[in-house]
Amino acid sequence: MSLINNIKDEFFYENNRINLASWISFRNYQNKEKYRTIISNEKNHNYIFLEGVSSKLFSMLSEGLILSDIINFLKEENIVDQLNDFLIKLKSSDIIISKSDIEKETKPFYPPMTKEKNAENNNEEELKEWVKENGFLWSVHWNLTYKCNENCKHCYIPDVKNVDEKAELSKQEIFKAIDDMADLGVFHLTLSGGEPTLRKDFFKIVNYASKKGMCITFYTNGLKLNNEFIEQLSKYWIHKVGISIYSSDPKLHDEITQVKGSFDKSVNALKKLYNKGIKTEINSVQLNNTVQGYFKTKKLTESLGGSVTMDFSLSPKLNGDLSPLSFEIDFDKLIVLSATSNTPLSVDTKKDEWGYRYDEPVCGAGHDLLCIGPQGGVYPCASFPFSVGNIKTTSLKSIWQDSLYGKNKNDSVLAQWQRVKLENFIECGKYDYCSYCDQICPAEAFLEKGNYLEKVSYNCKQAKARMEADKLLKNGLNRKNICYKLNISKNFGWQNG
Ligand code: SF4
Ligand code: SF4
């Protein structure tokens, strides 16, 4: 009995409940007698995974069950003596605040990120599969508005300067959908746009989602991220902030965003976030007029402390306007990039086995994630304007429950999409160059050809360039010879850009 009293004195507050740290996001899953939990500690950037009894116990604690109820459950399981150790582990992982540690709550963020903390987590991938197989929805990408204070030349949004704000979702509609997401098991919520900070109720939305346990990432151009904004943001223990940098040359970056001074603002925002200990992600879409400075941009972005994705994909505008494709990188440059180490196209790291299977979907769109548009439309992913419903007329819960993974398993539009596998695609996988392709994208095909089962011209072009580079390298040419043959500077990739 004295152990229970000690536990009570150390961990249970006057309301007879434990005190969860404000810097954690978590989701508890239960399907029949199967229990799983994911906890993301946004202070030290660690994930914790629980299963079985420990998951059930954590869900009881996090749902606010009082000590006597918890003891009764543990008695049934015959493990009362393990409660103390479990609580000590949660305390040492900074998940709960013991009474003696209560002052910790006011401590500032831990020091910034390290590369290791940005690494992919296999446990998370495994849980993502489990979540889907057990009928839950793993993540939602939400484009809160299509309004933007930049005007990127290659942007997939048709007109960021003329947006019908009145048609956008109201705060109440957004809160209702967040309630649905929590019920559906959504753990990762990405807030994006347009520029999401242009919504006046942005922090109210963040606050509401954070109270519902969501692990929130938000994509921004960083223009509004001054000290005051970042200070406010840090109160919500956001998981990650993503910002795009297009070039290491400020002039070139500003030319793309069409906003003078935007490079400095975005870079400064990234530096401030890093110093505050907030995890960052930098996405750098490479265009035909920036790619000559590929490695300079990579070096700059890596120096800013976040994880970096150098991205070669371009998408038509959501209304089918193909103008963003005019920024495609020339074929010869793609060959050189494929013959160069450390680019997304490098053939020296090409795996023998193709990353796709004919009997599986080609990506997670509509399986691991759904996207919600500013006016409530629901789509398989953010670049894919193939509507599977609208939350103004049908709840997000019904849309998911009527899908292949939901309870009702109706033959809804979403369920029909979820049945699509690589074997259904018209040409993908049927050419020799396909084994060099790692970008089968139904969204781009839908926008470019009006049919998501078609091939995407730019992705085929990249695959063909990789095959050509592989052939030249195997014929004994090196990168320098290939540059010479194609009349491209041998410094291509390390030039200004
Ligand atoms: S996009 Fe092109 S290269 Fe890629 S699998 Fe389809 S047809 Fe092949
Ligand atoms: S591959 Fe295309 S459709 Fe699939 S998630 Fe990525 S952008 Fe969306």
Q: In a nutshell, what does this entry contain?
A:
By secondary structure, the chain is α/β, with parallel strands linked by helices. Helices cover 35% and strands 13% of the residues. It has 17 helices and twelve strands.
What gyration radius follows from the Cα positions, in whole Å? 24 Å
Oligomer: single chain
pLDDT < 50 stretches: 110-119
Report mean pLDDT, rounded to a whole number: 93
What global shape is seen?
globular
Hey, roughly how much beta strand do the residues contain? 5-15%
The strand count comes to 12
Summarize the biggest pleated sheet: 9 strands, mixed
Strand neighbour order, sheet with most strands: 9-8-7-6-5-4-10-11-12
Kindly, what is the distance between the CA atoms of the first and last residues, rounded to a whole number of angstroms? Answer: 70 Å
Give me the number of helical elements: 17
- Fraction of residues in H or I helices: 25-40%
The chain-level structural class is: alpha/beta
Along the chain, the helix and strand elements come as HEEEHHHHEHEHEHEHHEHEHEEEHHHHH
**Which distinct ligands sit in these coordinates?**
iron/sulfur cluster
Please explain how this structure is put together.
The chain has 497 residues and is α/β, with parallel strands linked by helices. 35% of the residues lie in helices and 13% in strands. The protein has 17 helices and twelve strands. The strands form two sheets. The chain has a nine-stranded mixed beta sheet with strand order 9-8-7-6-5-4-10-11-12, with helices on one face. It has a three-stranded antiparallel beta sheet with strand order 1-2-3, sandwiched between helices. Strand 1 (24-31) and strand 2 form a beta hairpin. Helix 6 (171-184) packs parallel to helix 7 and helix 12 (331-338) packs across helix 16 (457-474). The structure holds iron/sulfur cluster (SF4) (2 copies). The site of one iron/sulfur cluster (SF4) has 13 residues, from helix 16.
